[in-house]
Amino acid sequence: MAKEESHASPEIQVELYRMMQKTRMTEDRIIALYRQGKIVGGVYTGRGIEATTVGSALALEKEDYLYPIHRDLGAHLAKGQSVLNILLQYLGRGNSLTKGKDSGIHASDTSLHIIGNISHLGSMIPVAVGTALSMKMQKKKSVALNYIGEGGSNIGDFHEGLNFAAVQDLPFILIIENNQYAYSTPTEKGFRAKRLSDRAIGYGIPGHYIDGTDAIAVYDTVKKAIDRARAGKGPTLIETKSLRMVGHSAHDDASYVDKSLIKKYERKDPILKLEKKLKADEILDDDGIKKIIDELQQEIDDATDKAVNSPLPEPEWAKEGLFAD
Asked: What is the pTM of this model?
């Protein structure tokens, strides 16, 4: 059987690479600011899963809705969010998306159709499904894309939300980011199924299991699911397999992770994998790669300077935007 042609043009492949580099470089800057004591609270990075977050969100259109979770900085950036807004949010500045009222991972931007997560990650599934329902009721072609970790896929919201989406044929895509550890719990202690995407058959919807370190495979799979949802054919469940290459958060040294597993996935680094392909296909050379990295470094440096020097929120703002006084 002939291999199916990819939807990822050379231009899209370069953008996938640029966005993955942008994601990792921005997260490296966030960690540096955290260690300098300039960021307080949790810092949860997605090193090793950039192909999943960027590859999926880059397949969305402007009118589509994105429901990222705590490691999905790549999805924020691929949907159009700026590095400056991300850093302002982490630094709790008064001109951030939440005006200093929430942490770096709880950021929404309705102008970009990005709805940020709450810490109870599975609870976002029914909310995203609700958005998909509203799009169908309004006869709009928008879709809703949501993520959950393999650990979070074991809670009731996962079943209730996905079952409702399936029954109603809603334009909804759910990605299970199987990064092999739910905090410090390995997957074999969380479920018996070999593939979580096999659950899709129970809902009567398509399920796909793909290499979460292959940005082009992620992009192609999600693009097809989006096209299917936009055509009124209902939801899709997609499982991407990768490894969280760092601890659960910036303060965690990941000492509980099998070191041989880390070495295995270091060789499958999604950024280096795509870089190697782009070079082999003569889409990018060393000069082109250097140009991308230099431009990103300048963008991140400029955003850092602006964010660090932005004002903190005013005390009286704490009384604003509340349900009750």
From this structure: 0.94
